[in-house]
Each structure stands twice: as C-alpha cells, then as structure tokens.
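[Discussion] Sanity-checking designs against the backbone

I'm trying to build intuition for which residues belong where. Below is a structure token string of 372 positions. I'd appreciate it if someone posts a full sequence so I can compare it with mine line by line.
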C-alpha cells in the first residue's frame, strides 16, 4: 500500500485537480493501491490563495478589456469566483471526487507547540516561523499513526517546502533526519519526502497499471504511435518558448535541470528547435475505464536559445555563446546558445474521442554531442 499526505504546496495553483497526474492518483486510490490525504488546515490556506489568485486574474482581464476598448472592441470579462467559502466547497468537492481524504487538524496543546518553537524543532525555523507547517506536520503524523502501516507499506509526505522539511533545507534532499525519526517513532515506518504530485504519480502508476486489464500488443503499438506523434507535434511548436538559464532555470515555466553550467542568459526564448524524432522513449503508465491511457514519452531536441546577457558575462564566455545583437543597451547585449534538451511529456489518449493530448512535465539539458 502506498500512503501519501499532501501539504499546501502540493495543491497550490492546482485548484481544479486536472491532468494526468491527478487522474493516476484517483485511479490508484479507487483500486486500493494508494491512500492519499490532506489536512483541513491546507484547505483553509488554499481557499485564501485561490481567492487572491482569482482577484488577480479578474484585474488582469479587466485591464485587457480596457485595452480592447481603446480600439472600439468590447471584450466580455467572465466572472471568476473569488469568495473563499466558495473555493473551500469547490476544493473539498474536487478532493472527494479524486478519492483524496480530508483529515481533521491535529489539536496539540499550546505548551506542546511552544516547546517545539523554543527548541527550534522542525518544521519551525530558527526565527520562530512555522506555526502552520508544524500543525500540518502533526496532522500528518496523526493520520500516518492511524493507518497501522506494515513494513512493506510506503509512506510519503508530499511538499515542495524544502526549507522546512528537507534535510539541510535544500531542494532535492530527503526528509530532514529529525522529522524522519519522529515519524518512524510514531507511525512505525519512515516517511519519504516527495516534491510534487507528479513524483507521487510516477511511483504509484506501475502498481495501479499491473492490476488493470491488459490490451493487445497491436493496440499498444497503435497507442504508442499516437502518443509519440502528439509529442513531436507539440515540441515543434516551442519556437518562441520562454527560457531562463539563470537560477532558477526554466523552460515554458517548467523547472529545468542541467548536467553542466549554462551561460547566464535572462529573459530568453527559443529561436529554432529541431526535434530528434529518432530519439524517443514511450511507456504506457496508466489506463482508465478501458478507454483512456496515460503514456510517458521522452524525446530529445536541439534548441537555439537567445536572450539578454550582461556584457561582462559575454566577455568571459568561452565560445559556448554567440552574438545576436551587440547594442541592446549599455549593460546588456543579446546572445544565443545551443541546448541539447531532453523533454518528458505525459500524454492522455482517449480512444472513444480519438484524441491525444500531450503535457510537458520535465525538462533537462544534457551534456555532450547531440549527434549520433
């Protein structure tokens, strides 16, 4: 059994709970492969975040509508729900529909919380911040302890808040040792820190898939071709895609890792992209209702990226960059570089609708010669 607890950061900006990852989590929960939960504390925080985000979106839409009015066009501004109570009900309903349990908050004494604060016990920070995170952690411990887990079960705490939950406060590190020991003492098993629902979905998909009806090899091959073609077509559209090579690096707002240092190009974009269709890997990772499949497809590409670069940084570069525009301003010029990318997509195939929808989920920059 896989058991996972989602903190606020795992749900932030995912108010609709849409996409292949949430489909897989729901499927695993319905099959009894996984139990997934979150705390009512998170919902109280998320309802306010969603309300504030909705207000921002509404203001942006109003600004766009006013811009259109300057040209004599009327752009209707849709109503975006912004009442926190409305969002609470929406979130609770969507969690229930996905099979995600909503647990009651932990109810520690004030003395217990104060003791953790004064002892600077994680997830409290040295400056005393971390009250809500501590309540979320204690809620997780109560839930995990109630599960009566066995040694063969897996327990996950899903949070992007590495500062307060990861060892050394570093992104990509395991759960802080002090928190791991506390969990083992109370729940009987150690907890594993995952950074996102995507990481959870990647883990539970094979077990869920193993319990489902197998399709014929010919059907698998046909679906694979559709998944690969959907990825190739989407990757070709990434001309003008936003790229940041300075920390934090990103491609189309997706966090990007690199196997080597990259030139510090800011506010960059893709000028040209070559999709290497002969370098593709596609794996069936989940199925639903005999009509929907989720494929994980990885493909390589060579991208020509250009953006702003400090003149001093360009002068110190060693040939990995080339010049586009030397006279952008007194401090910056426009420089370019070539990146060898590995792109991973989730592809949802609907057999009844004969549709294939690809979503970029992971990007990395590889080192070495992209030529075969």
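Best answer:
Here's mine. Compare freely.
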């Amino acid at each position: 059994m896989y058991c996972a607890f989602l903190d606020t950061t795992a749900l932030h900006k995912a108010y609709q709970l849409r996409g292949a990852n949430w489909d897989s989590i729901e499927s695993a929960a319905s099959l009894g492969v996984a139990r997934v939960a979150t705390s009512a504390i998170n919902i109280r925080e998320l309802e306010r975040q969603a309300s504030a985000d909705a207000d921002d979106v509404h203001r942006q839409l109003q600004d766009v509508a006013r811009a259109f009015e300057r040209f004599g066009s009327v752009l209707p501004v849709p109503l975006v729900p912004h009442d926190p109570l409305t969002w609470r009900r929406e979130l609770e309903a969507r969690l229930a529909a996905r099979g995600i349990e909503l647990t009651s908050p932990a109810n520690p004494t004030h003395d217990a919380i104060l003791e953790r604060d004064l002892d600077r016990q994680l997830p409290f920070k040295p400056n005393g911040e971390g009250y809500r995170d501590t309540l979320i952690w204690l809620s997780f411990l109560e839930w995990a302890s109630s599960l009566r887990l066995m040694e063969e079960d897996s327990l996950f705490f899903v949070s992007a808040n590495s500062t307060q939950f990861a060892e050394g406060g570093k992104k990509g590190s395991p759960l802080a040792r002090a928190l791991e020991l506390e969990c083992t003492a109370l729940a009987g098993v150690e907890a594993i820190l995952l950074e996102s629902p995507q990481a959870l979905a990647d883990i539970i998909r094979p077990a869920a898939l193993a319990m489902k009806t197998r399709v014929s090899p010919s059907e698998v091959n046909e679906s694979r071709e559709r998944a690969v073609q959907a990825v190739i077509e989407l990757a070709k559209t990434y001309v003008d895609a936003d790229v940041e090579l300075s920390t934090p690096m990103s491609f189309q707002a997706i966090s990007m890792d690199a196997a080597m240092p990259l030139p510090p190009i800011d506010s960059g974009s893709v000028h040209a992209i070559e999709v290497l269709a002969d370098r593709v890997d596609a794996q069936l990772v989940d199925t639903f209702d005999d009509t929907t499949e989720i494929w994980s497809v990885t493909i390589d590409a060579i991208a020509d990226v250009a953006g702003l670069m400090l003149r001093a940084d360009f002068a110190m570069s060693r040939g990995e960059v080339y010049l586009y525009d030397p006279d952008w301003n007194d401090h910056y010029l426009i420089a370019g570089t070539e990146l060898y990318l590995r792109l991973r997509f989730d592809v949802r195939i609907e057999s009844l609708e004969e549709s294939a929808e690809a979503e970029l989920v992971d990007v990395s920059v590889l080192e070495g010669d992209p030529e075969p």
